[in-house]
Amino acid sequence: MSHAPLASACAAVLRRDLTLAWRRRGDIVMPVLYALIVITLFPFALGPEDALLQRIAGGAVLVTMLLAMLLALDAMFRSDIDDGSLEQLMLSPQPLALMLGMKILAHWITTALPLIVIAPLLAGMLHLPTAVMPVLVYALLLSTPLLSLLGAVLVALTAGTRRSGMLLALMLLPLCVPVVIFAAGAVAAAQQGLPWLAPIAWLGAALVMALVLAPLACATALRIALDA
Amino acid sequence: MANWIPLWVHKLSSPPNFYRFAGIVRPWALALALITGVIALYGGLVLAPADYQQGDAYRIIFIHVPCAWMSLFIYGLMAVASFISLVWRIKLAEVVAMESAPIGAAFTFITLVTGSLWGKPMWGTWWTWDARLTSELVLLFLYMGVIGLYHSFEDRRQGARAAAFLAIIGIINVPIVHFSVNWWNTLHQGSTVRILGPSKISTDMLWPLLTMMAATKFYYIASLFGRVRTDLLSMESGKDWVRQIAEREGRA
């Protein structure tokens, strides 16, 4: 029996997921709106002093991003499990880890990329200096895929359970602590005029490791969660 | 070479054999935990001299430090048992891993509480965002995640396998907790007890600490074996050996 070459299988999975997301454009806007609302709550909660908001801007944007991505993560495999297409993917002759990697990529494009696009706006609302914006974007470009990859493994673990929302937060947030520390550390360093390359490099190193390991772990986790 | 050791281990990992073995070991472990615990407390609270800097307040370390060691030790053991259960599908390893989690969480909780009780008179604050305190708190969340995931599945063996996988992923935090005082120079003091080379602590204070460490280990064994016994009974509730035990206990 012959089957489709790997590259075209990957492209097919990616195209399918992106098409599905595009058909439900409303869902893509949700995390963005959520992040906007959370950011507007900060000045209300802390008072509208520019200096204070400026100091917390980087960290607040990062945490908001993390929470927005957390909300979107739950849906990563949900519809595929409900309509059985995930089982089909697991039965396909292509390596599951690679197929899942494509799904994670599609998920990152549809949830994290819009968030990164509006991140400068969010940071601007909290008066983050314009000079620091590029560092924030670099940090987000490296840390959001890391969160997507880590999150995918944990979502896969909860795939067999019914109530997973809160549990997902409990499992993911502790593992995200280093990511948040390094990403916020880079922004804070840039804000104080210090060299910020080291934390960015750490994020990059972690991302490379996660790119290799997380799809494999995700495949293992799905097999554990779905076939008893 | 005698091959009775692997054979013995192999036999022990069957639930009825381990049930019996744990039943024999448990009272001894509990007794040893009590004895060493009392000796360590007497040595630590009465015999050991007051610290030249901290006075008597430092004595909480005789609880705090052994519990902190246990919080990491149990996590490591849980991860190893998890690995064994995922690779070789040994039922007993699953049970050991999952029943270790609540005990480890309890030790982590005690570590955090005693640390904060000590922090108030010494640092003037209950809590600070110090590297070691924070990473210990993250350790508690990791334990909670493992316990939560385990209980969220309807099928317990499936839940155990998923939670075991999470436990293995979470092990990255253990070296972070362990080395945090050396990596980040924050409020928490550096480590004073060394395995290699001389410790930076007086012998009068060291021996109660090490005795307490033994006590917590014995307590862990007793607690774990008790939990594992109960769990094995409920997991194997349809099996013949459980029925035999139930009938025997019912008659007695």
UniProtKB/TrEMBL annotation, chain A:
The chain crosses the membrane at residues 28-46, 52-75, 96-123, 135-159, 166-188, 200-226. GO terms for biological process: cytochrome c biosynthetic process; cytochrome complex assembly. Keywords: Cell inner membrane, Cell membrane, Cytochrome c-type biogenesis, Membrane, Transmembrane, Transmembrane helix, Transport. It is a multi-pass membrane protein. GO terms for molecular function: heme transmembrane transporter activity. It holds the Pfam family CcmB. GO terms for cellular component: plasma membrane. Its main location: membrane. It is found in: Cell inner membrane. InterPro entries: Cyt_c_biogenesis_CcmB (IPR003544), Cyt_c_CcmB_bac (IPR026031). NCBIfam families: ccmB (TIGR01190). Required for the export of heme to the periplasm for the biogenesis of c-type cytochromes. Belongs to the CcmB/CycW/HelB family. PANTHER family: CYTOCHROME C BIOGENESIS B-RELATED, HEME EXPORTER PROTEIN B. This is Heme exporter protein B. The lineage of its organism: Bacteria, Pseudomonadati, Pseudomonadota, Gammaproteobacteria, Lysobacterales.
From TrEMBL, chain B:
The keyword Metal-binding does not apply. It is found in: Cell inner membrane; Membrane. Pfam families: Cytochrom_C_asm (PF01578). InterPro entries: Cyt_c_assembly, Cyt_c_biogenesis_CcmC, Cyt_c_biogenesis_CcsA/CcmC. The chain crosses the membrane at residues 28-48, 60-88, 100-119, 131-150, 162-185, 205-225. Residues 28-188 form the Cytochrome c assembly protein domain. GO terms for biological process: cytochrome complex assembly. Keywords: Cell inner membrane, Cell membrane, Cytochrome c-type biogenesis, Membrane, Transmembrane, Transmembrane helix, Transport. One of its GO terms (cellular component) is plasma membrane. GO terms for molecular function: heme binding; heme transmembrane transporter activity. It is a multi-pass membrane protein. Its main location: membrane. Belongs to the CcmC/CycZ/HelC family. Required for the export of heme to the periplasm for the biogenesis of c-type cytochromes. PANTHER family: CYTOCHROME B_B6 PROTEIN-RELATED, HEME EXPORTER PROTEIN C. This is Heme exporter protein C. The gene is ccmC.
